[in-house]
Amino acid sequence: MYRSDAVALLQLAAVLEGVALVALLVAGLAGFRVSRRQAGRLTAIDFVRATFAFPLAEGDRLDELLPALVRALSYAFALDAAEIWLVTEDGLFLTAAEPARNATLAGVPSLERVLQAGPVAGMPWVGAWLPALLQVWPEATVRVAPIVQADRLLGLIVVARDHVGWRLAAEADMTLEELARELGHAMHKATLDAALEESLHQLQQQADDLSASRARIVVAADAERRRIERNLHDGAQQYLVALGVKVRLLQRLLDRDPAGAREICEELTEDVERAIEALRTLARGIYPMLLGRGGLAPALAEACRRADIRARLQVSSLPRQSAEVEAAVYFCCVEALQNAARHAGPEAQATVRVWLDGAMLRFEVADDGVGFADGLESRGAGLMNMGDRLGALGGDVTVESTPGSGTRVLGAVPVRASDERLQA
User: Fold this and answer.
1) Terminal C-alpha separation, the chain
2) pLDDT tens digits along 196-211
């Protein structure tokens, strides 16, 4: 009896020893696979760093790195083809290929379908969503790694091996995965850099335009002061000097020549009326009284009546705006009428329209004159003055003209900001 128990114990020990040995073998095999996978991952990272990440960090341009990258990829894995495709508005564009070729694909797989395939897609996925690639390499093993960044599909890395009996190793998939990740970051950064560069260029252009506009405003203000001084000297001042001379003459004739004194009194009345009209004309050029009292509608109606071209005003119910907005629109319309009178032709007619469009006050001065086809630079400083005046308030002006079809001056200025300043 004791002997049979000993045999049973020995058998149990042998079974346990076998189980332990199998467990050790399984653990060793798993560890070997993990080690091999980690080694493959490190090899892939080293390849990507050496062929792409380090040169990019040293300042090499992305578009110059891509051809070298596909050549290195093709050589490292003995590939028959290595290509990088970029997503465009029309589909996929082949931007780098080894061997070199030109190609485009009309369709772009959706991001969901790309991500469902995993980091690297194989033949079934390629045959379903990019069958054109299999037509290029009908007997090859094809692998595709999507380049994804910020939930956007930026492109694809495609590799193919056509050697009979050869298959792409797992290390190739690791390399493709690492490479796609690095390319995604690089392309996203390049996009952001391009957008930043464009923004900086626009800001610099705006700063240059603002500086030039300020210089023109200063010059225009000085010219306006000289014009006012000249008009005062040649107009109202001359009338007032003549009035002073006639008043002194009247004082001497009151007792000696009453009839002559009465004639001088009549002349003084006419001279006073001319002086008043000269001052009114000068005041209208500085800031029309009707604009301050009644707003744009009566001021523009008077401007149309006095214009050197037949002009009519179209304006519906228009609420009052801030003084700077009304002045900008008024003087721009007057400037446009003066341009039309000079360039549209003797038979031309003009129409002035002003309306409120949400938070924008818009105007249009259109004529049916001869029009023009040359650049706006030859039309004088009037259009530039309008642009500066409206630009100072956040508005803009455009001109449309065709030979024989007249000219339209369109402008707009925001009113909300001015209204808030008035209420503050």
Assistant:
1) 110
2) 888 888 888 877 777 7
